[in-house]
UniProtKB/TrEMBL annotation:
It comes from the Bacteria. InterPro entries: AAA+_ATPase, ABC_transporter-like_ATP-bd, P-loop_NTPase. The lineage of its organism: Bacteria, Bacillati, Actinomycetota, Actinomycetes, Streptosporangiales. Pfam families: ABC_tran (PF00005). Residues 4-234 form the ABC transporter domain. Keywords: ATP-binding, Nucleotide-binding, Transport. Belongs to the ABC transporter superfamily. PROSITE patterns: ABC_TRANSPORTER_2. This is ABC transporter ATP-binding protein.
Length: 302
């Protein structure tokens, strides 16, 4: 079953095509939508919420049409916008209760539900203080809480880790993972950092200039970009030559060799070649998957 599907979806602004003939499907679970700044992620989310009309093509969310059933979609979908949009002089509790009531919950149920979601996102006593005094991490949690308060089946999270320090980023990612696994809510989460989404997503979609570059289960994704970085004290060239002779794909980056991992045998060959050549191994490091690598590989393959 698809959570959402687009077919030839296009959005043109006067000077730029933000979404370009995009055909993609998303299943249940946590899906990452990755692209550089300006790739079209926020525009796509606004179209999927029925807030922005597409110029061409079609899209369905939870089997509802985005152009004619936007209000129904928004009843079933939570949305955490990218930009700072919180009123500074009300508390998190007041805001989330208010938004729950706007979604149709009676006052008592809205209060209970708001308390529940604020607890889930980790806002304790501070939820009674005005939002203006919150840290970025706390504000992101309030935005997440309001996206969850009406008990949605699906949530769209637009750059939820923006502006967070490494610890805040980790906490937010774990929270998103829990929403997907424990609460059974499907998630579409955007980021310009592929690395962080790899940790929590079942599926990743990569877009560039509004076009689909790739849509894959996370396993296929990491496999395709898997490399290992090797550094030896001296003898980088002979090691590269030896590995290439053994059928490995090797490229030299300064003092480092980047070797494509074809399987467990790649590690064995690096170990054996280093020992045979009597080299001192300084570093053997799992390649880090960066969005630039994916772009480079996909573009090279076109
Ligand atoms: N309302 C608009 N009018 C004109 N151009 C727009 C509008 N909204 C977005 N764009 C343009 O469309 C392109 C895609 O923008 P979008 O915000 O969707 O990208 P994004 O991937 O979400 O990036 P970011 O994370 O930086 O917001 C950009 O070139 C942007 O300038």
């Amino acid at each position: 079953m698809h959570i959402l599907a687009t077919e030839g979806l296009t959005k043109r602004f006067p000077t730029v095509t933000a979404v370009d003939q995009l055909s993609v499907t998303v299943g249940p679970g946590v899906t990452g939508l990755v692209g550089a700044n300006g790739a079209g992620k926020s525009t796509l989310i606004k179209i999927l919420l029925g807030l922005l009309p597409p110029t061409g093509g079609a899209a369905r969310v939870l089997d509802l049409d985005v152009t004619s059933q936007g209000a129904e979609i928004r009843r079933l979908v939570g949305y955490m916008p990218e930009h700072e949009c919180l009123p500074p002089d009300v508390s998190a509790t007041e805001l989330v209760v208010h938004l729950a009531q706007m979604s149709g919950l009676p006052r008592t149920a809205a209060r209970e539900r708001a308390a529940d979601v604020l607890r889930h996102v980790g806002l304790a006593e501070e939820r009674y203080r005005p939002i203006g005094g919150y840290s970025t991490g706390m504000k992101q949690r309030v935005k997440l809480a309001q996206a969850l308060v009406h008990d949605p089946r699906l949530i769209f999270l637009d750059e939820p880790t923006n502006g967070l320090d490494p610890r805040g980023r980790d906490e937010m990612l774990m929270l998103i993972k829990r929403i997907g696994t424990e609460f059974g809510i499907s998630v579409l989460v955007t980021s310009h950092l592929l690395g962080e989404l790899e940790r929590i997503c079942d599926h990743v979609i990569v877009i560039d200039a509004g076009r689909l570059l790739r849509s894959s289960a996370i396993g296929e994704f990491t496999q395709a970009t898997q490399t290992v970085t090797v550094e030896v004290d001296e003898g980088t060239e002979p090691l590269a030559a030896r590995l290439a002779e053994r059928g490995q794909t090797v490229s030299q980056q300064g003092r480092m060799l980047v070797v494509k991992v074809l399987g467990p045998e790649t590690y064995d060959m690096i170990r054996d070649a280093t020992a045979d050549l009597d080299l001192c191994l300084i570093r053997l490091e799992q390649g880090r998957h960066r969005i630039e690598d994916v772009f480079r590989e996909e573009v090279a393959g076109v």
